[in-house]
Amino acid sequence: MPFLEFIAGSISGAVGLAVGHPLDTVKVRLQAQSVYKGIFHCMAKTYSNEGVFITAPVDLVKVRLQGQTTADRYRGPIHCVAVILKKEGPRGLFRGGLALALRDIPCYGLYFLPYEVTRKALTESGKEPGTLAILMAGGVAGVVTWAFATPMDVVKARLQMSGAGGREYRGVLHCMRASFREEGVRVFFKGLLLNSLRAFPVNAVTFLSYESLMRIFCPPMR
User: For residue 47, what pLDDT band results from cuts at 50, 70 and 90?
Assistant: First the structure.
């Protein structure tokens, strides 16, 4: 049973990432850089300069690759890792790790609460949740979670980009103070709209894929 849950979770997670990756790239660029006027300007500039979006397996490498506007610095994930190790050492690969933990630990705790509440609210008593209930519950869970995660997500993106030509920060608190001083409280909600637009379909598909796979792997006893 745990192994089947692992397989179902892995597949559904991959499906969700595939759905959300293009908007994730735009979100990173809006948070880490100030050269874009808004969502559509960022999307237009990215597509006109680079075509279809890139992908990377590690969060730091993903952010570095998403954040660059040309291929002059990094030619791909492996080259990105090599450059980071050469210029920053092994510690460079963990840049922004504390901010990532501060973002993810409380948000993963929150993640399943709105899902369960919404799913139960949309399901008749004694019946299995339908496709619409799962999709809506997954979407709501994603939006609620990212609403709480966005401020620290901004800090994480800025710390991760600070070793790649971006503004240098000494740590999480310095990044928060400097960002607030220079841009005001609004800076911590950069990318919130994109996070929400991305989170709803990504998590709706993720939960639907997981629930569907578990029903296939473990059909209910009749």
Answer: very low
